[in-house]
Amino acid sequence: MSTELTHRYLSVNGLRMHIAEQGQGPLVVLCHGWPELWRSWRHQLSALAEAGYHAVAPDMRGYGQSDAPSDVAAYSIFHLVGDVVGLVAALGEEKAYVIGHDWGSTVAWNAALMRPDVFPAVVGMSVPARARSAEAPLPTLRKRGFDDFYWIYFQEPGVAEAEFERDPESTLRRLMLARRQNGLRVPAGTGFLDGFVDPGSLPAWFSQRDLDAVVGEYRRTGFRGGLNWYRNIDLNWELSAPFAGMKIHQPSLFIAGTYDAVIRGPTGEAALAQLPTVAPGLRRTVLIEGAGHWVNEERPDEVNAELLRFLREL
User: Fold this and answer.
1) Does 43 qualify as catalytic in the annotation?
2) Are residues 186 and 119 in the same domain?
């Protein structure tokens, strides 16, 4: 395997999956979140390769150059974990370290929970592992008066797609780079993007070239694939019943930025506090001061140092 970044397509779990890969050695699979693509791991791919690992970042199911099934139910957590398991096999390996960010973190935690024989260690970024709740998430939100929470806004096929696809560049600038003013709620008569203020200029960690590459993919694919992950939230809760009470015992690491809204507020802080109980193998929780949600892109040097420290300890 060359130390240069290369791309190819593999048949994985019934999909044609696009992967970017770099390096040779023990396999590390990097799972991106929403609305990212494989490119979100560009800094980690090179760092892992240079450290002696075979780093692989797929476009996850429904994203970029990977297949996007039309059936909403084809985006359940079983499908997503199955894709990562299938990717390991398609690469000719039996085991891999799995790393995820945002929704990819949820996939990584669940992959470690469901298939400890395949994933001997796991890293989650921005989204902590959570214990299965007593009832389904969306009815719980409604009971608590959160009928306008963005998860619910995303449920009706076509609504969020129409909003996001009117101007993909503005959408992605707002989603990834702007500050949200009203939390994650979408009041009646508004759209999800109305809660953001366009940043005007790009930060040093995200160039116009980076933005153009992501926008180009979304102009071609639309946003439906990634939104379908949200449309399986309650189904995922149903499917997770056999795993209720189970814990992630493998060595694990959690990384997030101190400004990440996911770990702030009562819900986020509770999830962070409960993480050692859900994942008893947790080695460290690393909070990077001043970083936001896109921590692996915003602060790659610090993230890479923590990743390599963790992997070398194994």
Assistant:
1) no
2) no
